[in-house]
Amino acid sequence: MSADTGRETHQDHAAHQGEAPRQQEGGQKVFGKLAVTLIECRDLEAMTVFYRDRIGLEILNQGDDWISFHTGSGGELIIGGKNGDSGVHLGFVGADLPRAHAALSDLSPTDLREHDTGRNFTIADPEGNSLSFVDHATRPRAEERRP
């Protein structure tokens, strides 16, 4: 309960509902911030034309079967797909991996593993979309990732 209002705070509600804490001491977020969205697609060319030409996103980097765009808000949109499936994958950066992994243990998270920009683990949301949590605070700029 908040001493000022006498009302239940989100943290109080979360504790009663089995939710994980949103922040650590000092305000750092346990799960980090949403910075990467990956859309798997069947037609990379059409999706590239749409997001580049119609929406106006700037290309950051690309490979044979993917392309990444600067979102204008410090994030990154990646479009691609090797297997022709469609789906959405969200990437949270700057996570406190041990705490986040423990808080989501009921969702069968993957083991912690090395990622090209840090360590990570993945879970699925109730609709089966993939959420990755990475322990670095920022992604390297596209030109730093190029081989």
Can you describe what's shown?
The chain has 147 residues and is an alpha+beta fold. The chain has an eight-stranded mixed beta sheet. A hairpin with a 2-residue loop joins strand 6 (113-115) and strand 7. The protein has helices at residues 10-17, 44-54, 97-103, 142-145; strands at 33-40, 58-62, 66-70, 76-80, 87-93, 113-115, 118-124, 130-134. Among the domains are: 34-83, 2,3-Dihydroxybiphenyl 1,2-Dioxygenase, domain 1, CATH 3.10.180.10; 98-147, no CATH class. It is globular and about 40 Å long. It contains four helices and eight strands. The longest helix is centred in the middle third of the chain and has 11 residues, at 44-54.
Précis, in short:
The chain is of the alpha+beta class.
Please write the CATH class name of the domain at 34-83: Alpha Beta
Total helical segments: 4
CATH architecture of the domain at 34-83: Roll
How does the major sheet shape up?
8 strands, mixed
Class from secondary-structure proportions: alpha+beta
Uncertain runs: 8-17, 137-147
How helical, in percent, are the residues?
10-25%
Radius of gyration: 18 Å
Strand composition percent = 25-35%
Distance between the termini: 53 Å
Number of strands: 8
What descriptive keywords fit this protein?
eight-stranded mixed sheet; 147 residues; alpha+beta; 2,3-Dihydroxybiphenyl 1,2-Dioxygenase, domain 1; 20% helix; 8 strands; disordered C terminus
